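Schema walkthrough. Field components (list of strings):
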Amino acid sequence: MQYNSNKVFPHPVLRRDNDDYQGGYDFQFTLESQSKKDGIHFTFEFDLSEDAPLVELIKKEQACYAVLIKSIETGFRHLESGFDNQFAYFVEEGILGGKITISPYIVSCVDIKGFSSPLIHPEFGKKSFDFASGTVLAIDEEKNLYVTSKVHLGSVFEIEVDNAMGDDEYRYDRDYNHIIISVSKSFLDKLKLMRSAPKGDALLMQGIYFPIIVSLLHELDADEKDGDGIDEELKWVRAFCAKLEEQNLALPGSDKEKNRLSDAQKLLEGSLQEFLTVTDKIINDD
Amino acid sequence: MTDTVYYLSENSVATLLSNIEKNKDCYFSTIKSFTDMVKIKKSSISCTGSLSLTSYAPEDDKENALKVYENLKNLSPKQASDERVWAYMTHIEAKDYTYNRWIKGSSEEDVKRRIASRYFLPDIRSLKSRNAISRLWWLGHAAHKVTPDAPNEFLEVMLLEQDIFASVFERPTMETNIGILTCIYKRLRESFEKGDGLLKREAYREWLKRLNFEGGVRLLDALSPEQLQQLVNDLAKNAIEKMN
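Field assembly_structure (string):
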């Protein structure tokens, strides 16, 4: 069940940007996660004001806070719940992978008859509701994080010959699981020579991959901003997001301040230094 | 006899994927091999020797799922979602099986698409329903979770019709929720033994549709096993009654 502030339920559901309950109440959910060698430690916190609807149900243990943790890649799915507004959960190493979705709810723990609140929007047409066990009573936006094996960004690129390309140009195509870089045969031969040289990979990373990475980061930001969303089905997109998270850099669509030129340098992890070493040697040998 | 799980390098997978057309002969051949075209890596995960999948019919999926899972049961779910492992299995370990089960007889227009979907993992959903070997592993994995003492019984029912398999396993909210999967299996097993009409296509499709709808307003994960089984049974009864 994905978060949607406009989704119509047959009963009031407390959520932000929605007036099923009048009075501007919602609940805030915060997530902290720590990746350690043994696994991932989660801490969940729910912030629901004392006079908000549903508080009494939780106090009477008729409703509870619940967090659904899902990893589509590994098929992991678990619901952790409690009556305290803060609780923790631990997942062992190897269980989660790829994109992890954390969805917060308040749900009924038992069948509830005749729940009422003066804050329920009159458009429901009634002031009293029965809830079967498991009914979603409140929902907040899901949070995502990425867990992946250490990925070297160079591995998401693939270079192909395109006879239509000139010898001094290249282009890339981002619609596949890998970024396909198209070059002429002569250009590819030169890249192969470059790669076979000592530290030659650094020249490839900085000369070819680096500008593409800057461009791709901007394109991913634009995809999010335009409302299209990033295509997480593609392997390179998942690898980029995992690397951004690993380095604590802004994910596409996040409100964090972004400097994609600087981010691209961090994503290439030290290859700039190697590049400078190689060019230094070239200059001195000359 | 114990052995080790092998996998392909990331670049090998990418190269194979972009050269399907060029390598078509090798996919179709029982003699040619991909071994010289790829970089094979050795993991530290043990397995019980080679896969030896020699039965290619859809009816053999049950036996093959148990075989694959038993052989590779030491994979963690995270390792079992790695394309490099499954690309090795389909291209090297079980090349003949993959071709005979999924590619033989394909039309010329279709063959490239089928190779991409059965030998690789073009998207996340392919892991459990498309890749020739990973789908068997994940089926075996589910069987061992739902009926650990008799995994073959789970497969006997879930693979009765390919449509039942697809209807359940291509709905992530059902196949990833072991609680729901268990309840669905138990109700299907009851129908399998009593013949109450639920195994008719219109009936089980209506049933699963209603269950999906119920999951839109209730968090089914929050129900106890008894509550969930009651719900699943009630919805099945309603679906059968509607069909009669």
